[in-house]
Structure to design on (153 residues):
């Protein structure tokens, strides 16, 4: 008898990942947050500001919601610069097919950031330092997509 394994169909999951950048120093830096044990997946991994896209909410709008929830920054304290193309990631273990909607934001008030329970640590890093962090899957690809994304005038 054959022992063919049929895996369950993957759940389509749309998420937003926002890269918050500051330009008040000699180099552009982006914010990374370290995920807490209380989030659903990828504990202790570094990520941008991210979350599930809720039903009937556009990814653009969800990006602002997540920024407000996870950093305390209001809409007038950030400016959307770019909207990247979707980056896909299949995670068999979680049974999900992620569609990551990446965004690049400029932070007008970086000193105002107060992370919530979803993060245990935060760091401003230069983008080329990303490789030195254990990140959520495809974070670098999402960042590149956001960087090369559609310019939001």
């Amino acid at each position: 008898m054959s022992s063919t394994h049929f895996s369950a169909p993957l759940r389509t999951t749309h998420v937003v990942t926002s890269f918050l950048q500051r330009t008040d120093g000699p180099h552009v830096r982006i914010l990374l947050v370290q995920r807490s044990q209380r989030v659903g997946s990828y504990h202790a991994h570094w990520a941008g500001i991210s979350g599930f896209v809720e039903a009937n909410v556009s990814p653009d709008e969800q990006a602002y919601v997540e920024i407000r929830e996870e950093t305390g920054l209001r809409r007038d304290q950030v400016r959307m610069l770019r909207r990247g193309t979707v980056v896909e990631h299949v995670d068999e273990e979680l049974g999900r097919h992620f569609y990551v909607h990446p965004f690049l934001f400029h932070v007008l008030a970086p000193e105002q950031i107060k992370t919530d329970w979803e993060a245990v640590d935060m760091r401003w890093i230069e983008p080329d330092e990303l490789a030195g962090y254990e990140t959520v899957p495809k974070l670098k690809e999402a960042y590149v997509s956001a960087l090369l994304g559609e310019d939001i005038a």
Notes: The beta strands are 11-22, 29-35, 46-47, 49-52, 78-83, 87-91, 96-107, 119-125, 150-151. The mean pLDDT is 94.
